[in-house]
Structure formats: structure tokens, C-alpha cells
């Protein structure tokens, strides 16, 4: 990668997508934008600051309503000045509309009939991997045509390492545990969830292998307690500490793509 330019480039507001896996897949592009000299300001879901804590990018929660999000864009424009630019990873019409109404028309993908709302519309090629899609958007913004780089090792903060170590000590976990992710975006009953997860977990328990589950929502916590009575259930684990648990597990078995991408980013064996 080229070193940052001597004169700073405009601050860049980046709207992230709503799913953990997509944010993980966008990190190579974020790193390239930073290396090119842009000061990044991220907007996304409430778990983004924890997930990306080790990268040092300032981030804020995305407001919940259209008027709130437009006001958010306007606040960012006032805060960062008239040179600020924006880039939106989501494909939605609303993300382009909000940035335009907020005074920071964005670079984004030409889809959903939103091209006229964007500062620059980039052709979307859905024939490849999503990580490549995001990379192509960043390359278009920078005016480059570099190949997609190999994934870099995920960064973890010292706080995340400490939290994960504390949890392992509290639950008596060594280095031989397995993490199961029997949940998806619609909960344990999502059709993408492997139906044999409970039987698989029970067999692992009979063989003396510690099984760890880290449910997020209250529904997942209840399903974990009901369907996996022999598992070590660790609710409320921070997103970064969860990544450390995935990285250090003997194996990770996941149904949903989001945790799978998180595990892959953490270099987990899955």
C-alpha cells in the first residue's frame, strides 16, 4: 500500500451495513481508505464500536428514523466541514436519500434506482464475493484499480483479550472448547439453522468436549438454555471478546454467515 499523502484528504463519513458479516467484509476497504489518507468516521449499528474497537475509527450509532438520520448527516457535515465526503456500503434507496438530504451526497452502488441521489454511482457486479464488491466501491472512490488483498489478521483490543480470558476462567474453559452458533438473524428457528445442532451438541457433551454458546438476544438466551442444557452459555459477551473466543476455540461450527465471517476474520478454525 502507498503511504498516506502529505496533505490530508477530506474526512470521510462511511455508512456501514447492518450485519456483522458485512462489516467484517468491509474492513479491508476501510483500511485502504485510511491508508490513502482519509480520516474515517463510521456510522452503523450499536455493536460497531465494540466490533471495531481495536481499529481506532470514531463511530456513532445510526439513528432510528429518517428525520433522525438526515439530521445525523447534517451534524456530521457541520462537524467535519465542507470538504467532507461520504461513502455508503448499503444498497438501499434510503441510504442514498438520507445522505443527499443531509448535505453529504455519497459514493455508492448504482442500484435501487438511486443513482441520481449519489455524488457518484458505481456499477455493482454481484457475480463475485461480497468482499470484492466492497473493495470495488472503495477503489472507485479512490480512483484506483488494485486487486483485492488477502485478508489481514483481525485486530483485537487489550480489553477484548482481558474480557475473553476472564470469561474462560469463570467458566473453567481451557483451550479445547468448541463454539457453536446455532442461531441466525431470525433466531434459533431461522430456516438456515442446522436442525441437528442440539443432537450434535449433546454428542459432544457425552464425549467430554466443552461446548460454548454466546447468545445475543433474549430469545437466543432462552433457546440456548432450553435446547443446550449441557453447554456453557455465555450471554452478553462483547462483540470483540466474542471474536477472541472464536479465534481461540478448538473449532467453530456456525449456521449463519455473519458469525461465520466473524470467525474467519478472527482466523478461527471453523
Chain-averaged pLDDT: 92
Order of helices and strands: EHEHEHEHEEHHEHEHEHEH
Q: Please summarize the sheet with the most strands.
A: 4 strands, parallel
Can you count the helices? 10
**Rg:** 20 Å
Rough shape? elongated
Please estimate the helix content.
40-55%
Strand order of the largest sheet: 3-2-1-4
* Strand segment count: 10
Structural class: alpha/beta
Task: Kindly estimate the percentage of residues that lie in beta strands according to DSSP.
Answer: 5-15%
* First-last Cα distance: 30 Å
Low-confidence stretches: none
Please describe what this structure looks like.
The structure is a single chain. The chain has ten helices and ten strands. It is an alpha/beta fold. Strands 3-2-1-4 form a four-stranded parallel beta sheet, with helices on both faces. The protein has a four-stranded parallel beta sheet with strand order 9-8-7-10, with helices on both faces. Strands 5-6 form a two-stranded parallel ribbon. Helix 1 runs parallel beside helix 5 (130-142). The longest helix has 16 residues, at 20-35. The model has no long low-confidence stretch (mean pLDDT 92).
Protein topology:
Layout: E1 12-15, H1 20-35, E2 40-44, H2 48-51, E3 59-61, H3 66-80, E4 85-88, H4 93-101, E5 107-109, E6 120-122, H5 130-142, H6 158-170, E7 178-181, H7 197-206, E8 211-213, H8 218-227, E9 232-233, H9 239-248, E10 251-254, H10 257-265
Parallel strand pairs: 1-2, 1-4, 2-3, 5-6, 7-8, 7-10, 8-9
